[in-house]
TrEMBL record:
Protein name, UniProt field: Indoleacetamide hydrolase
Protein task: Hydrolyzes indole-3-acetamide (IAM) into indole-3-acetic acid (IAA).
Amidase domain mapped to chain residues: 20-426
SUPFAM superfamilies in the record: Amidase signature (AS) enzymes (SSF75304)
Organism: Devosia psychrophila
Length: 448
């Protein structure tokens, strides 16, 4: 059942939150020894919260659609009483003293925090078998990567362990796992969702957002964590026609790239055709050169991450795994002049995207150039994965990632980019596409 269907059952008495939480815990116990999405399941805390939700329902109290619904939290986000490990050797016992603001908002909406979900160490490179925890595994194929760093958040949804979760995104860390695991990821406008209580990676590029089974469930989760009123809600245009919506199709970002799988190109063109059949007006556009913005964004990310971690890198290098240490330490080579040039390049990119969005309601482009790569090569060293994501962390535009097809049993995804604070429009487009296709109802094979 969707979380909307679960909510209806909770409200009319066909289901209790306690029974729902117990069912999810049984599902997690049955499957997560294979998937490894969870670092911690707070069984007692979740059941206590479920009892409170049931009592509130019985007394006529209703905090909204998430009341009594289990939600999982990426392990870069503080949950009071649970460790925020960041999958780092030095943080295994770093118990959070308070909830992050997004977790407070979920609790205020009645959501049940059921546990902490896997991440690449400090949101950097992975998967890494030498991390504090073993890497999460892709439910569609255990031999392929999940993408990162919000790996557990995507796996929990794809594997049927939860309907909605929270992830973070600094260079594609939420959208990459969404593409590779066939779920919905929603990176909101920069600053829309507060990041207090969330471990930083790159302060000017960090985003917190939902990863969910459907567009509507992601939109509802965003409404809660962004504390949006009804008149500005991300979900207010769900179910509405997209006829007449103007979409710029940025095919130049991938169509001629030799790394692009033919199946990805075919799926993207088919997705655009579907949007056209739904009444959207499609125009092929040219986004600025991707490699240039990727280089600029990487410089910002490395420099800001290094500055944040420098004292700990110097004083306690043993607190980091080798790959994370090397990734973060690379920022020492970025000079102040190079950082300024990178930020200027990012500003130019943002302006160019804004200019295109003046003429279009949204931009559509590919998410990743390939399906999920085999995991085995990552056991030896970090492997670059070709995505088209990090530019929108610099520009701060909201982006919806959603599945558009499969190749050899592995998901393919696209991005829908909107104007700043126009989450409702990209959700309207994504929801219409999702309803017109069957990608969101596909399920991976049962783990054995």
């Amino acid at each position: 059942m969707s979380l909307f269907e679960q909510g209806n059952c909770l409200r009319d008495g066909r289901l209790t939150s306690v029974a729902l939480v117990e069912a999810y815990i049984r599902r997690i116990e049955a499957r997560d020894t294979v998937y490894r999405a969870f670092y911690a399941v707070d069984r007692e805390g979740a059941l206590a919260a479920a009892r409170r939700a049931d009592a509130d329902f019985a007394e006529g109290g209703d905090s909204g659609h998430l009341q009594g619904i289990p939600v999982g939290i990426k392990d870069l986000i503080d949950v009071e009483g649970l460790p925020t490990t960041a999958n780092a050797p030095g943080r295994k016992t770093a118990v959070a003293q308070t909830d992050a603001e997004v977790v407070k908002r979920l609790r205020a909406a009645g959501a049940i925090i059921i546990g902490k979900l896997a991440t690449y160490e400090w949101g950097t490179v992975g998967p890494d078998d030498r991390g504090a925890f073993p890497p999460a595994r892709n439910p569609w194929s255990l031999d392929h990567i999940t993408g990162g760093s919000s790996s557990g958040s995507a796996v929990a949804v794809a594997g049927g362990l939860l309907r909605t979760t929270l992830g973070t995104d600094t260079g594609g860390s939420l959208r990459g796992p969404a593409f590779y695991c066939g779920v919905v990821g929603l990176k909101p406008t920069l600053g829309l969702v507060p990041n207090s209580g969330v471990l930083a990676m790159s302060a000017s590029m960090d985003h917190i957002g939902p990863m969910s089974a459907t567009v509507a469930e992601a939109a509802l989760t965003l409404d809660v964590i962004a504390d949006l009123p009804a008149e500005r809600s991300a979900s207010r245009l769900i179910g509405q026609s997209i006829a007449g919506k103007r979409i710029g199709y940025a095919r130049n970002w991938f169509a001629r790239d030799p790394q692009t799988m033919s199946a990805v190109l075919t799926a993207m063109d088919a997705a655009i055709s579907t949007l056209s059949q739904l009444g959207a007006v499609i125009e092929e556009i040219e986004l600025p050169d991707y490699p240039a913005v990727e280089v600029a964004a990487a410089a910002i990310l490395h420099k800001e991450s290094f500055d944040y971690h420098a004292p700990e890198l110097r004083d306690h290098p043993e607190a980091f795994g080798r790959r994370a240490f090397l990734s973060i330490a690379a920022g020492v080579a970025v000079t102040d002049g190079e950082l300024t040039a990178a930020r200027n390049a990012g500003s130019r990119f943002r302006s160019e995207v804004d200019r295109l969005l003046d003429r279009h309601d949204a931009i559509v482009t590919v998410g990743a150039l390939t399906t999920a790569l085999l995991a085995a090569p990552f056991e030896k060293e970090a492997v670059w994965t070709p995505m088209r994501t990090i530019g929108f962390n610099v520009s701060g535009h909201p982006v919806l990632a959603l599945p558009i097809g499969f190749h050899d049993g592995l998901p393919i995804g696209m991005q829908v980019i909107g104007r700043h604070h126009a989450e409702a429009t990209i959700i309207q487009l994504g929801d219409a596409f999702e309803r017109a296709t069957d990608h969101a109802v596909q399920r991976p094979p049962q783990p054995t």
